[in-house]
Amino acid sequence: MHLTSARRTLVVTAALGLALASAPAVAQPQATASTNAPVKVTVTVKGPDGLLFKGKIKTKGHDVTTATGGTHRCDGTNGGANPSAVPTPTAALDDAAKKRHFTWDGTWYASFDDYSVDTIKNVSGGGIAYWNIAVNGTSIPVGGCQFKLNAGDKVAFTWTAF
Q: Residue 6 contacts by C-beta under 8 Å, 6 or more apart in sequence?
C-alpha cells in the first residue's frame, strides 16, 4: 500500500504542477493616472437677467467652504458616487469664484452628502427658483459634488424658475 500511496502523491503533484504551469498568468495591476488630475472646463453662470460669468477653469475635486454650509469634501466620492476623487461641477464653480473674485453660497445636506447651490454673485432663487447644474447641455442626475467632470466639459449653472 505504501507504493500505491507514493504513486498517487507523485501523480497528483505532477498534475498540479502541469495545471499551474499551463494556467494563464495573473494580470498585475498597472499604474493608472490619478482620477483627480486637474481638468480644464468651461463654466457658465446664467442668472435671471442674463450671463453672470463665463470662463475656462482648471479644476479638480477638493474641499469646499461656504458661509452657510461650512467645509465639506466635494470630490466625487460624495454619496459613494465614485470610488476615488474626481473633478466635480461644484468644485469647478468654487474654483471659478476664487479665480474671478465672485461669491457663491450653498447649504450642506448631510443626508445627500452634497451642497445645494443657493446663491451665485448675489443672485438667489429666493424660493421661486433654483440653480440647475448641467454638463454638456444635460442636467446632472446627482449632486454637484458627485458628478465626474472630464477635460473639455461645459458646466452651466442656470437660474431656473419653479
A: none
Are 33 and 60 in contact, with CB atoms under 8 Å apart? no
Q: Which segments of the chain have a pLDDT < 70?
A: 1-33
| Residue 63: predicted pLDDT | 98
Contact 160, 130 (CB under 8 A): yes
Domain-by-domain residue ranges, the chain? 39-161
Q: Is 134 exposed, middle or buried (0-12, 13-18, 19+ CB in 10 A)?
A: middle
pTM value is: 0.79
Q: Would you give the DSSP letter of residue 83?
A: S
CATH number given to 39-161: 2.170.130.30
Cα angle, residue 134 at apex, residues 111 and 116 outer, rounded to 5°: 30
Q: What are phi and psi of 100, to 5 degrees?
A: -105, 10
Helix-then-strand count for the chain, H and E: 2, 10
**How confident is the model over 115-144, as pLDDT tens digits?**
999 999 999 988 899 999 999 999 999 999
Contact 74, 94 (CB under 8 A): yes
- pLDDT at residue 33 in the model: 58
